Amino acid sequence: MSESIYCRTCAGVSRLRQRTPPTRVPLISRVLTLTAIVVLIGLLPWLSGTDPALSLLRARSGEQEATAETLNAIRLSLGLDQGPWHALARWLGGLLHGDAGVSWVSGLPVLPGMLRATGVSLTLMASSALVALVLALLLCAGTMIRGLRGHTPHPAGFFAALLTALPEFLLASFLLITGAVWLQFFPPYGWLGWQYAVLPSLALGLPAGGYLGRLYSDALAGTFGENWLTTWSVLGISRRHTALAVIARSLPGVMPLTGLVLVSLTGGAIAVEKVFAIPGLGRATLGAAAAGDLPALQTGVLILLLLASLTGMLAGGGRRLLLGRALQLGAVPVPAQTAQPEKQRAWIPLLCLGILLIMVLAGLPRDPLTSEYLRLQPPSLSLPFGADAMGRDLLARVAHGTLNTCLQALAVSLICLAAGLLMGAFPRAMTGPIEVTNALPPVIAGLVVAAVNGPTATGAAIAVTAVSWAPLAAHTAALVSEIQARPYMKMLPVVGVGAIRRTVFYVLPALCGPLLRHAMLRLPGIALALASLGFLGLGAPPPVPEWGRVLAEGMPYIERAWWSVFAPAAALAVLSVMAVTLSGLRWKKRATAH
Fold first, then answer.
1. Is the pTM value of this prediction over 0.90?
2. How many other C-beta atoms lie within 10 A of the C-beta of residue 508?
3. How many Å apart are CA 289 and CA 110, to the nearest integer?
4. 8 A C-beta contact, residue 376 and residue 387
5. CA–CA separation, 412 vs 425, rounded Å?
6. Which pLDDT tens digit goes with each residue over 302-335?
7. How many Å apart are CA 365 and CA 369, to the nearest integer?
8. Which long-range contacts (CB under 8 A, 24 or more apart) does 190-197 make?
9. Which of 175, 337, 353, 570 is deepest in the core (most CB within 10 A)?
10. 3-state SS of the chain: helix, strand, coil percent to 5?
């Protein structure tokens, strides 16, 4: 009997190894995805339905008449008369010789300028990552200390959620005014020394640190619930060695997300680079896309994608190094979910929901479009949030925009959850799309969609959906690999459990809780992405009220009329805190019931 079980076990393991894709699959996935994205960007001027020669003429001289002779001369000088495929092939051929082409706007070589901008962005990325990691460690300190003392650890909640809710462009403007204008501690614009990096690094690092702190503390809390820690405690192993083991056990599950967050600092710095006038890669790529400078746009996107692939490979290698042979031997510990619900914190999401409902109910009956008040009229009893620069009621505009932004963010979150679950089930084959998609910030995707379909609310939702599923897919892939490496999963084929039943009754239930919490955690981030597109004019056209547009309209007056941006910023913060605290309470109740 034992020999039969042994043979069946070996046969099951052999079948699993035979079905495992070769190690070249991730590399092929990256190459194919990079190629597809570069081809898409290269064909963008023709996909948009506009004449590239006309776009180039408008970029060079908006007053020159677009005659047939002028347009034909531009096509002949740049080889546009031979079609998009010839232009794309010529650019790719030049890359093999270190030549990325000549800018259509300035007439200068593209590659040297893009490499300088890449150096600036990498420096900003490194300093922002340092800020984010230091903040994440501070947020995790309480969870680690409670766990080492034998108490029930609690993930970082309110403060981490509040930091996650801070829009980078709003935080950048606030830091610019306080740190550079009022206090005059740091220079406001440019990039000439380390002091120029302080405010931009804080603007990028604080929201990322809040997000990472929540993820890390959640992972630490789960690790402290595993049974092996009880054995270590009985054996009298020191707290220092226990802390190192807990960190090594918790990091693999969040390493892919850490890599994605780090690379998103480069792509997501476009608004911050724009506010502080930093000559970085994101700002250069955004300017090239807006001007229709195809060679510069292609080069910038290609560098962003290469950075994403390199960061993804380093994060994946670090995760495999930390887990060691546990993945191969099926020795990944099973977390023991014993957390108790925290009734004292149940009032936080209810309070946030009540604030949003009161704001919506109070503002919906009011007119968000009519200019009935004085310009930048301060708040009063009849005008609780004040008036904007056109004399419109800010309470009405934020309340009407709440429904649009929240409903769009919820729909995008659910779509991203489904896409992440589907794509993450094939981690090796989808390595390229996951890493490359995360490297494309919503701004670039919004520019692509707006170039094809014009700026609309639906286009903004499509753009955010197209780039927001990658973290959930990476999380799914990491969880699937760990779940399948657990001992009981290795024994299921032996007792006759098929692949479909194993997936439906064992893998999916173990995935749903962490992924739903992660999707809820990303809900405010998606709302911020939609707001950022509206802030940059890539969302719903005016005069439609939405949070991003209200922020953009009030940003020039933030120094003398703070109320012009307070209402939408506060609404984003309340939404973030509600989403994160609600997801935490759901997790605790589910864990206790289990």
1. no
2. 15
3. 14
4. yes
5. 20
6. 787 777 667 767 766 766 776 666 555 555 555 4
7. 12
8. 190/276, 190/277, 190/278, 191/120, 191/278, 191/279, 191/280, 196/276, 196/278, 197/123, 197/124, 197/127
9. 175
10. 75, 0, 25
